[in-house]
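By way of example, what follows is a protein record of this kind.
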Amino acid sequence: MMSASLFSTLPPELICRVFESADDFSVVAALAQTARIFHHTWRENPTSICRAVAPRVFSNLTDAERLLDMQEEAEAVSQSQDGREQKSNIRAKRLLFNARCASAAGDNWVNLCEIHEYFDRGEDPHMRPSELARFEHAFYCVWTIGVMGRTPHLQDQASAFLDECSPQELCRLAELGEWATNYNENDFGSSGLDLEDEVWKAGCDLVSKRWKAYLHGRHTIPAPDYTPMNFYAFFDHTQRYLDLIQDE
């Protein structure tokens, strides 16, 4: 094994490439604790390292980055004096924090649904990556809407975001909001996720109001039988029901 003194002779560019080739962020964290030069490289290059590793970890990287952008916009005044390095570190750490929250929410959703207990699941009855990806997409979207909705100069963007959603997308966001509001005990361990904070309340409220406005005067689509809590927006075998939702 290479000694710590030999690590110091490696060029920073090479060490950065080692970080960027990591399979996930647990490897990044382990590398950062290997030697001082590795820790320094991580501190100096969090943005490039996160950009390289994130596509291998996140199924919804675009959604995760959009949430980051809105969080930074919401705090633009308080962060205006921060240096470039500090902003990069904050962004990298926030990306990981948000991802832990999304993962904790997804685990809660999986445990709540117990979808493998329901029929019509074929040879793969357990929650599938495609289903969890839909859930996490909606999770990031509702969180983003909440950030915009709670920030006066971003509220128009929240409305525009919802304007761009198809009825099928609104259905998914509304179902996520229903879960966040009524179907969990807001206990997500050490992740730091708090679905009862004002941002999440705002996001769920805005989505709910927009979905109810869409449904006004329309025939509701009956939920398919034998799904957990009558939810159906995220499961592979119930996607056909979303096709029954009328477009504008």
